[in-house]
Specification:
This protein has 451 residues and is an alpha/beta fold. It has three domains: 14-107, Rossmann fold (3-Layer(aba) Sandwich), CATH 3.40.50; 117-301, 3-Layer(aba) Sandwich (UDP-N-acetylmuramoyl-L-alanine:D-glutamate ligase); 313-448, Mur ligase, C-terminal domain (Protein-Tyrosine Phosphatase, Chain A, Alpha-Beta Complex). Helices cover 33% and strands 20% of the residues. The protein has helices at 30-42, 68-76, 94-101, 109-116, 131-144, 175-178, 198-201, 204-211, 213-216, 230-236, 275-290, 332-342, 361-367, 383-392, 404-414, 436-448, and strands at 22-26, 47-52, 64-67, 82-85, 105-107, 122-126, 149-153, 168-172, 187-190, 223-226, 242-245, 251-254, 257-260, 263-264, 266-268, 299-301, 313-316, 322-325, 347-351, 373-378, 397-398, 420-423. A six-stranded parallel beta sheet has the order 7-8-6-9-10-11, with helices on both faces. Strands 17-18-22-19-20-21 form a six-stranded mixed beta sheet, with helices on both faces. A five-stranded parallel beta sheet has the order 3-2-1-4-5, sandwiched between helices. Helix 1 links the parallel strand 1 and strand 2 (47-52). Helix 2 packs parallel to helix 3 (94-101) and helix 5 (131-144) packs across helix 11. The longest helix is centred in the middle third of the chain and has 16 residues, at 275-290.
Length: 451
């Protein structure tokens, strides 16, 4: 695939017609602010109204703000020509159906970006887990191959605030961004599919379908998929232009490295632990090869690659114990992956959070096989259910705790030299934290106080 220069691309924004008088910006977080700037530059004639479920304390002067029921009613009434919805707002909200029934176009900043740069060479990566790391790896590999790449989307700066990369644009896209995606990327990769984000998508089956829209939108787009993931394989069965990794003749993990067929790649200074991260790397190499940037026989050096925080992030404690921040773990499958790395030595596990109907049985069955488990510390939310499950399997546990800080304090007080304290909750954070990043930051702060 030839590299293309983003600087030569034409710009169009027909999703918002030239005569559009009223545009609603639904949600005003990081992406919403960037979208407001985009509209000011490209559509200065449009009257923009901010709509939010709650207050908007930092709304710009001169911009009308609608909140609560008043905002919801206006969205559904057909008062707006276009509604640009933030990713965190569910596509299944009744206001969306009401607006569409009234003739309003409901779209997203992701769609506006794709339409603004129709000739950009884009590689889009999604999956329940591993998409951020894989996207970062792909971006790094393109750089090693001499391609000028930009990384954006769900990681880094909002897409709508950025122009494409000079040679290639690497996009990490969440299911929220893909659910109403109207433009297919040049290349796509799916890491895996596990039950997640059920409330936003109104069920896990909707989540799978919405996530896989990335590869079902246009069958002419070449896609890379993990051959060992049955859910992903079912969605691409019979689809043309599919390239699999984790196969004997493709890029796959063998022992502690990555091979292409029988040839082991020369990978150096990779600061990522766990087989799951090697699988992510195999996927990244597959996408690189599909783009025409893979170079056989070369050294792939990761000394300048910085692993993302909250993903098996280690901190040595003063008492000789090791703390591991794996707050990114919001499904039980990722907790299992963390234990594949840290379950071989005595460990204590902080687990639990929002009850989203995920199945922890396989995880607790695995925990019951690990003689190295010292204690489970059950967090608020589904901690009660997990306690009952732990009792069935004869596992030691404390909690559930009403407060995250107390659970961490007890775990730190119990930890001894040579042990590992793992925060890998397998669930989303409760209302104590806005997201997994804030939860991970709090864990590191509490652990840092023990240094």
């Amino acid at each position: 695939m030839d590299k293309r220069k983003a600087a030569t691309l034409s710009i169009k924004t027909s999703l918002i017609p030239a005569g559009a008088a009223n545009v609603a910006l639904w949600g005003f977080g990081r992406e919403g602010r960037a979208t407001l700037d985009f509209l000011a530059q490209r559509h200065p004639q449009a009257k923009v109204t901010l709509v939010s479920d709650g207050t908007v304390p930092d709304a710009p002067d001169g911009i009308e703000v609608l909140t609560g029921e008043a905002g919801s009613a206006e969205l559904s009434s057909g008062a707006f020509d276009v509604i640009i919805k933030s990713p965190g707002i569910s596509l299944y909200r009744p206001e969306v159906a009401g607006a569409q029934a009234s003739g309003t176009l409901v779209t997203s900043a992701t769609n506006l970006w794709f339409e603004a740069w129709p000739g950009a060479l884009t590689v889009a990566i999604t999956g329940t887990k591993g998409k951020s790391t894989t996207s970062s790896l792909v971006h790094h590999l393109f750089g090693l191959a001499g391609w000028r790449s930009k990384l954006m989307g769900n990681v880094g700066r909002a897409m709508i605030a950025e122009t494409p990369g000079d040679d290639v644009t690497v996009l990490e896209l969440s299911s929220y961004q893909i659910a109403d995606l109207a433009f297919a990327p040049s290349l796509a990769l799916v890491t895996n599919l596990h039950p997640e984000h059920g409330p936003w998508h109104h069920g896990h089956e909707n989540y799978y379908r919405d996530k896989m829209r990335l590869v079902t939108l246009d069958d002419s787009v070449p896609v890379a998929v993990n051959a060992t993931d049955g859910r992903v394989a079912a969605y691409v069965a019979g689809r043309p232009n599919v390239r699999s990794f984790e196969t004997a003749d493709g890029f796959h993990v063998k022992d502690d490295g990555v091979c292409l067929g029988e040839t082991r790649l020369d990978i150096r200074n990779l600061g990522l632990r766990g087989r799951h991260n090697l699988v992510n790397l195999a996927g990244a190499f597959t996408l690189l090869d599909m783009a025409g940037a893979f170079q056989p026989g070369r050294i792939w050096d990761f000394s300048r690659f910085t692993p993302l925080p909250h993903r098996l992030q280690e901190l040595q404690l003063a008492n000789g114990a090791l703390a591991v921040n794996d707050s990114i773990s919001t499904i039980p499958e990722t907790t299992r992956a963390a234990l594949d790395v840290h379950g071989g030595q005595p460990f204590r596990l902080l687990v639990g959070g929002v009850d989203r109907g995920q199945d922890f049985n396989a995880l607790f069955q695995h925990l019951a096989t690990l003689p190295t488990l010292k204690m489970l510390y059950l967090l608020k939310g589904n901690g009660g259910k997990l306690g009952a499950m732990a009792a069935i399997h004869g596992l030691p546990f404390k909690g559930p705790y009403a407060a995250f800080d107390q659970a961490v304090a007890d775990a730190l007080a119990d930890s001894m030299a040579g042990e590992t304290l793992v925060l890998s909750p397998g669930a989303a954070s409760q209302e104590e934290f806005a997201d997994f990043e804030k939860r991970g930051e709090r864990f590191l702060a509490l652990c840092g106080a023990c240094l």
